[in-house]
Each structure stands twice: as structure tokens, then as C-alpha cells.
């Protein structure tokens, strides 16, 4: 997966499964992916090593992957959106898309 695709993918998973992470994991993910801080900047904020942050992010990504593997919410949402594209009635499309939010 390309870096940008990877970034978007994990942000989508975080939107869906982020509440299943603990507070430390949420904060590290947010600092990395949403605030776009470097590993060293996050390490300085958290007062840990850069390696510890890298390891934490790897663990967070594995957890998000695991949740998606089991629940498949993102996969199902993408499948529904593909089907919705075929609907001609714009009001119905809008209702379905809003229901997915």
C-alpha cells in the first residue's frame, strides 16, 4: 500500500474503531496521523524513546487491522457506497449516505 493510501486507510479505520483503543493509543495516533507530528516530536511530548512511539504505532495499526478483519465495517460501508452510486434517485442516495455517517 502506498504511503498516502496507507495514511487514508488508517484514518478511516481510526474513525470507525478509534474508541476501542485506550487513551494513550488514541493520543499517539492523533499526534501522528492527524497532527502529522514526527516520531521524535511525539517521543519528546510523551517523554519516551522514538522507538517506543514507532512500536506503539505499529501496535495501533495491528489493532485497527484486527478490528476491521473481524467486524469488516469499512469493507461493508465501501460495498454499500458502490451500490448507492447506481441509484438514480438523488434523495434516496443522500439518505443512505447520511445514514452511513
Helix-strand blueprint:
Layout: H1 3-17, H2 23-34, H3 39-46, H4 50-71, H5 73-84, H6 90-100
Helix pairs in contact: 1-4, 2-4, 3-4
Using brief descriptors, characterize the structure shown.
elongated; Arc Repressor Mutant, subunit A
What does this structure look like?
- The protein has a domain of 69 residues: Winged helix-like DNA-binding domain superfamily/Winged helix DNA-binding domain (Arc Repressor Mutant, subunit A, Orthogonal Bundle).
- Helix 3 crosses helix 4.
- With 101 residues, it is mainly alpha-helical.
- The chain is 79% helix and 0% strand.
- The model has no long low-confidence stretch (mean pLDDT 94).
- The protein contains 6 helices and no strands.
- The longest helix is centred in the middle third of the chain and has 22 residues.
Please describe the biggest sheet, giving its number of strands, its sense, and whether it closes into a barrel: none
DSSP strand count? 0
- Integer average pLDDT: 94
How widely separated are the two ends?
25 Å
Top CATH class of the domain at 3-71: Mainly Alpha
* Weakly predicted, low-confidence segments: none
Helix content: over 70%
Tell me the Rg in angstroms.
17 Å
Strand proportion? under 5%
How many helices does DSSP assign?
Answer: 6
SSE string: HHHHHH
The CATH architecture of the domain at 3-71 is Orthogonal Bundle
Give a short synopsis of this structure.
The protein is mostly helical and 101 residues long. The protein contains 6 helices and no strands.
Amino acid at each position: 500500500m502506498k504511503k498516502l493510501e496507507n495514511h487514508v486507510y488508517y484514518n478511516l479505520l481510526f474513525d470507525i474503531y478509534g474508541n476501542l483503543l485506550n487513551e494513550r493509543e488514541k493520543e499517539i495516533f492523533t499526534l501522528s496521523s492527524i497532527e502529522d507530528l514526527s516520531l521524535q516530536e511525539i517521543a519528546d511530548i510523551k517523554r519516551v524513546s522514538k522507538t517506543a512511539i514507532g512500536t506503539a504505532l505499529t501496535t495501533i495499526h495491528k489493532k485497527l487491522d484486527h478490528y476491521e478483519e473481524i467486524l469488516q465495517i469499512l469493507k461493508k460501508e465501501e460495498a454499500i457506497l458502490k451500490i448507492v452510486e447506481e441509484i438514480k434517485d438523488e434523495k434516496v442516495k443522500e439518505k443512505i449516505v447520511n445514514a452511513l455517517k
